[in-house]
Automatic annotation (TrEMBL):
The keyword Isomerase does not apply. This is Cytochrome P450. CDD domains: CYP90-like (cd11043). One of its GO terms (cellular component) is membrane. Heme binds at C423. Its cofactor is heme. The keyword Cytoplasm does not apply. Its main location: membrane. GO terms for biological process: brassinosteroid biosynthetic process; brassinosteroid homeostasis; secondary metabolite biosynthetic process; sterol metabolic process. It comes from Aquilegia coerulea. Keywords: Heme, Iron, Membrane, Metal-binding, Monooxygenase, Oxidoreductase, Transmembrane, Transmembrane helix. The lineage of its organism: Eukaryota, Viridiplantae, Streptophyta, Embryophyta, Tracheophyta. Belongs to the cytochrome P450 family. It is found in: Membrane. GO terms for molecular function: heme binding; iron ion binding; monooxygenase activity; oxidoreductase activity, acting on paired donors, with incorporation or reduction of molecular oxygen.
Length: 475
């Protein structure tokens, strides 16, 4: 009897001690206020709970009210400090490689690969970043990508006009995926040649990425992992096939990789190259298609903005010697109001609801200590919807960006991140959005048919899609 009682008491004391330790983590200073939630689960379920508003996510807003702009919590088994404070966010971005390091939950690494650019640091990271910039940076955009983007937009819009209704999120994602896949690996899906479509493996990806990490059949996360496996196999097979082909000069990213892998002392590995291709394919189409879908939804709901935008683009066409000439870089750079519309769309879209870092040592900030090893989540929606900075923050008002069109990143605008890890695809996104809008408003009109409702988990999604009917304008 006594031994059983003793064992029982020992178990109760151990669990109580463990729960107490969970709720009151060790810290060599003062932790930010907050709750660590339930043991192991933390506050993960509340964080991922769907909501249909475009305001600051309820999870964040409630805690800002209760604890102030910086608070602690636990997400997917990790202690996290969440910052909604523009000064702290800015400081964190500037500390990359010093006090903090880019870090994402293990689930992200599982999906994007251990050698993906977001998980690499130091000179290997710099090497990969330069590689991406050579593909999608300003020089490449100006000389090669701008005409390709315009051609793709024209072709796509022509196709849509010949169809009944189009579900915009899926249709823009397909358009962008095709363009990026062509640029990176010269991939074009041909059902006559292969039953496997690379694009199909990326379905519902953003949903799975920012969802509860439960790897069992039926969950979004599981679907995501299965998609990654199949996509990686296809990419690997394609690279193998290319290796067996006669050497050709550099036409796409695969050619570059094969040349680079042959060099003595190269730091590029096949795994790194494949993870990079996967990340770029995902990052380019999933994010920009959400931004474009929201842009068209907002333009549909705000005819006065659409009118001003259309006027800007019609003026560009009118001022040309030949109206059918191709868009030039100078014309793109002259799209001032369009740039304001794009900034306003990405401010409201909050496509990336959290940017993660890991504290490399104890960080003292505004009277609090963030312990070494903890995750830090910078929260862009809280910054973008701050009424002290953006009057009527939920209003779609592109004019608020007048004079600040070329805003890269600032303490109050971090849709594309900030500091050393600032998004390398920013200008590519802006070119794609501006050129697509140019082709759309100068040559086509559209009407909304159904859908357009938004859900955030906390990543943005359109659960019923956004269905529109497109027709050619009568000139
Ligand atoms: C609306 C469109 C986009 C949004 C909102 C967006 C947002 C972001 C954000 C917030 C980051 C910073 C992540 C961090 O600091 O940890 C980032 C990084 C990154 N983005 Fe984008 N992005 C977009 C489009 C693109 C495109 C089109 C590409 C591909 C060409 C791309 C490729 C990348 C890459 C490779 C990184 C990692 C950079 C690094 O670690 O230094 N993004 N993006």
């Amino acid at each position: 009897m006594w031994p059983i009682l003793c064992i029982g008491a020992f178990i109760v004391i151990s669990i109580t001690h463990w729960v107490h330790r969970w709720r009151n983590p060790k810290c060599n200073g003062k932790l930010p206020p907050g709750s660590m939630g339930l043991p192991l689960l933390g506050e993960t379920l509340q964080f991922f709970a769907p909501n249909t508003s475009s305001a600051i996510p309820p999870f964040i807003k409630d805690r800002m009210k209760r604890y102030g702009p910086v608070f602690r919590t636990s997400l997917v088994g990790r202690p996290v400090v969440i910052s909604t404070d523009p000064e702290i966010n800015h400081f964190i971005f500037q500390q990359e490689g010093h006090l903090v390091q880019s870090w994402y939950p293990d689930t992200f690494t599982e999906i994007f690969g251990r050698q993906n650019v977001g998980s690499l640091h130091g000179f290997v990271y710099k090497y990969l970043k330069n590689l991406v910039l050579s593909l999608f940076g300003p020089e490449s955009l100006k000389d090669k990508l701008l005409p390709q983007v315009e051609l793709t937009a024209h072709k796509t819009l022509g196709l849509w006009a010949s169809q009944g209704t189009v579900e915009l999120k899926e249709a823009t994602a397909n358009m962008i995926f095709d363009l990026t896949a062509k640029k990176l690996i010269s991939y074009e899906y041909d059902p006559a040649k292969s039953s496997e479509n690379l694009r199909e493996n990326f379905v519902a990806f953003i949903h799975g990425l920012i969802s509860f990490p439960l790897d069992i059949p039926g969950t979004a996360y599981h679907k995501c992992l299965q998609g990654r496996k199949k996509a990686m196999k296809m990419l690997k097979d394609m690279l193998e096939e290319r290796r067996l082909m006669p050497e050709r000069c550099q036409e796409d990213f695969f050619d570059f990789v094969l040349i680079e892998l042959k060099k003595e002392g190269t730091i590029l590995t096949e795994e790194m190259a494949l993870d990079l291709m996967f990340v770029l394919l995902f990052a380019s189409f999933e994010t920009t298609s959400l931004a474009l879908t929201l842009a068209i939804k907002l333009l549909t709901d705000h005819p006065h903005v659409l009118k001003e935008l259309t006027e800007e683009h019609e003026t560009i066409v009118r001022n040309r010697e030949n109206e059918d000439a191709k868009l030039t870089w100078k014309e793109y750079k002259s799209m001032t109001y369009t740039a304001q519309v794009i900034n306003e769309v990405v401010r409201l879209a909050n496509i990336v609801p959290g940017i993660f870092r890991k504290a490399m040592r104890d960080i003292e900030i505004k009277g609090y200590t963030i312990p070494a090893g903890w995750a830090i989540m910078v929260c862009p929606p809280a910054v973008h919807l701050n009424p002290a900075k953006y009057e009527n923050p939920l209003e779609f008002n592109p004019g608020r960006w007048k004079g600040m069109e070329s805003n890269g990143a600032s303490k109050h605008f971090m849709a594309f991140g900030g500091g050393m890890r600032f998004c390398v695809g920013t200008e590519f996104t802006k070119v794609q959005m501006a050129v697509f809008l140019h082709c759309l408003v100068t040559q086509y009109r559209w009407t909304a048919v159904k859908g357009g409702n938004i859900v955030r988990t906390p990543g943005l999604s359109f659960p019923d899609g956004f269905h529109i009917r497109v027709s050619k304008k009568n000139k």
